[in-house]
Amino acid sequence: MTKWICFDVDGTLIRQGEGKVIWQLVNEHVHSGEEINRKRFAEYRAGRLAYAEWVALDIGDWQREGLRRETIHRIIEERIVPMEGAHETITELRRRGYRLAIISGTLNLTIDLLLPDLPFDTIYSNRIDFDEEGRIAAWEATPFDDAGKVVALERIARDAGVSVAECAFIGDSWNDRHVLAAAGFSIAFHPKVEQIRQISDLSIESGPLTQVLDHFPDRGGAPDDEER
Question: Which of helix, strand or coil describes residue 171?
């Protein structure tokens, strides 16, 4: 039986009309185009650029350009919205007795701005910090994107005293392929690539996130009543 449900963010809990993620949007603002995104993504997929190096290149450019918190906030608020049904889904899953986690390559800002106060037990994402004047002061690349998402899932299971088979994952894109294959139950939600349709136990092609509720029955009691 599933006890933990883990979510990707971009394309799963939040959405952007063109299917882009926060990294692409901010880079387009800084570089006035998409070429830098295409180049760095290709370098990463070819193994010539480590994930942390990719993050450092992007945020380092933003810092050198003097990009401030309010500008990134504005990009997020103007161009990205919560997925339809995201708030209702997370709230209801919690009420049904599930523990909830985020394992994502997004920025912490998107979670803070678009998914505030939702009852996640654990959040793994990239982090960016600002000084008192809103300038970029520091950042931390998550070690838990792409293949690292499986490591995060295993850590969550170990820390909670459950098996990976008791953990579900819901995601949409190529960097979710490893964790979708590893989870005890997996849902490809609005899948972007055929590979994850084939890997996942279930594929939901369109519509609100509330559809996942059909696959997680009420466990009878709030998770806070359980031993952790």
Answer: strand
